[in-house]
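Next up, a chain.

===
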Amino acid sequence: MFRDEWGRVLASLIGFLGDFDLAEEAAQEAFAIAAERWPREGTPANPRAWLVTTARNRAVDRLRRDRTLAVKTRLLEARETVEDKMDNLDETAIPDERLELLFTCCHPALALDAQVALTLRALGGLTTEEIARAFLVPEATMAKRLVRAKEKIKAAGIPFRVPPAHLLPDRLGAVLAVIYLIFNEGYGGRGELAREAIRLGRAAAELMPDEPEVHGLLTLMLVNDARREARFADGTVVLLREQDRSLWDAEQIEEGRAVLHRALAPGGGGPYVLQAAIAVLHVDEPTDWPQLAALYGELARVTGSPVVELNRAAALAEAGEVELALALVDNLDLDRYHYLHATRGELLGRLGRADDARLAYDRALELVHSDAERRFLARRRAELDD
């Protein structure tokens, strides 16, 4: 319930209170009360309404206790209108304000990394540790970043709203980065986050129907998520070439192809459209690895991302250019990224350098956090002994 409802509950509270910290504390209290009462009294008919109402009441109680209410009269009056309606409040009566929260977190007054981190915390419900891992930074650094972002929103009076149409393009990059990082966290095994990212992607596409990059990101998520059931077996990761295609969601893949056509129609060629084209090529059979390597090369040129270069190296290896791929990997500055070392292990193993491959897999195993990926890497390392 926490994973499903956290973003909705918190967004509703921030819209009501206008205060990130107070809203987060009240939401946490409501979930804690639910964890205590629901096993004993039963789950309410409308869990979200129960959580929002309980959290609002707790927040107002805290304001009342603080006695700093000269400018908080509206909140006290609102208490009277909601406190007796918990049983009759329908979930549809609670507005879904996550898009407002998304654009608030992605306000240009905040640094881009703070925008992404705060939204992952606020809408995705990710812990500080999980967000730090996504950014490849220490947890203490991320904690400070989140605190500064919330303080900046309060000090600058950043509004809780979807920006007017003429400002939407300037705010798009951060919003898409947020959605994509939420999806990536879900793609690693937390399916509810992947579904949440797709829902946000659909909302963004509806809000900005003429933006190719929005449709590109939605395609990317739809096609990759369609393979979710085939990505894991017996608690370990299954490589794309070994996946059971009958487990893929063919309908979702076709939806992704249709969305990609919408992205390409106005001549879209940004990073998300390129990644969408790559995702669609990956599900074609047979896979056109040279074309994939070329697309990754164009994406690397557009983004300057070493992670994209790592993916290009993997595509080159599948196209038969293993030594070229290894040379490319060895020039990347991604020492704390376990996929780099896992890729090195794979390439070194193909070249018959088993001892070096074992060392690469050992380094990857030191850095990996997912149990499924750890088991996969351990198995690949063990295969070198055979």
Remarks:
- Confidence is low (pLDDT under 50) at residues 79-89.
- The radius of gyration is 23 Å.
- The first helix runs from residue 2 to 17.
